[in-house]
DNA sequence: GCGACACTTGAACGATCCTTCATATGTAGA
DNA sequence: TCTACATATGAAGGATCGTTCAAGTGTCGC
């Protein structure tokens, strides 16, 4: 990690200082980055989309619906579980997963809107 | 990537089929994963937060405000530029960056809300 | 108890990502 | 032209991530 003062030439020192103190705390930044990191994998993304559709599903159906191995699905669900994105209900030897809150749906919709806005070719502006 | 039919035992085949066909297209999933991937890095996250606060800033001020090297900031901005998350205005030898649309703010707020909801200890449920 | 089953976990390999250093591009001023 | 400057880019090194295989836990039915 970088020291608090950096050796980069500055144009508007006043603005830099005010922006700097308005930034979220280091802890918040790390938290946000981890949440977004969970959403950055196609497999986990499909899983969340499946839960958005299916409501509550067991691991093997989730694996089948998203085209993953059982082991892969289980690893993915572990990460989502630890970050409280999904919650699990156990019944016998089955484990049924569902989304833990409604933010995921909104995150999805927003990101899709952004993707739609930027579709039709990427590259330098 | 997995074949379309997978060798995982299925409990509710009907539901699996209906969820499977309701999933977003492969292209959409990849797009979404890439957008979220951009947000998954603390440096880029701080950069977007700075632009949210500062409106429009040059690269060196952005680097100073977020505690990155010039080179690091430039690499980060390149990725954000290519995904149309930020846009650049050039004036002489300066480059001024700003957010390209308002979705980033909403994505931030939503993710922060989720983080608040899950704060106070992580782990298996 | 025993085996089959649903799921979980650990370790290893390969791919990807971020950081850094060095260099390149293009602009301003003398 | 030459130097200083703001930014951009390429390549290399190390860290991190996802996938896979193998083995582990706990449950059901015989």
Jot down its keywords:
homodimer, 125 residues, mainly alpha, Arc Repressor Mutant, subunit A, 3-stranded antiparallel sheet, 6 helices, 3 strands, DNA-binding
How would you describe the overall organization of this protein?
2 copies of one chain form a homodimer. With 125 residues, chain A is mainly alpha-helical. Chain A has one domain: Orthogonal Bundle (Arc Repressor Mutant, subunit A). The first copy, chain A, contains 6 helices and 3 strands, in the order H-H-H-E-H-H-E-E-H. Chain A has helices at residues 13-22, 26-38, 42-54, 59-66, 70-82, 103-117, and strands at residues 57-58, 86-91, 94-99. Chain A has a 3-stranded antiparallel β-sheet with strand order 1-3-2. In chain A, a hairpin with a 2-residue loop joins strand 2 and strand 3 (94-99). In chain A, helix 4 (59-66) packs across helix 5 (70-82). The two termini of chain A are 31 Å apart. Residues 1-6 of chain A have low confidence and may be disordered. Chains A and B meet through helix 1, helix 2, helix 3, strand 1 and helix 4 of A and helix 1, helix 2, helix 3, strand 1 and helix 4 of B. The first copy, chain A, binds a DNA duplex (30 and 30 nucleotides) through helix 5.
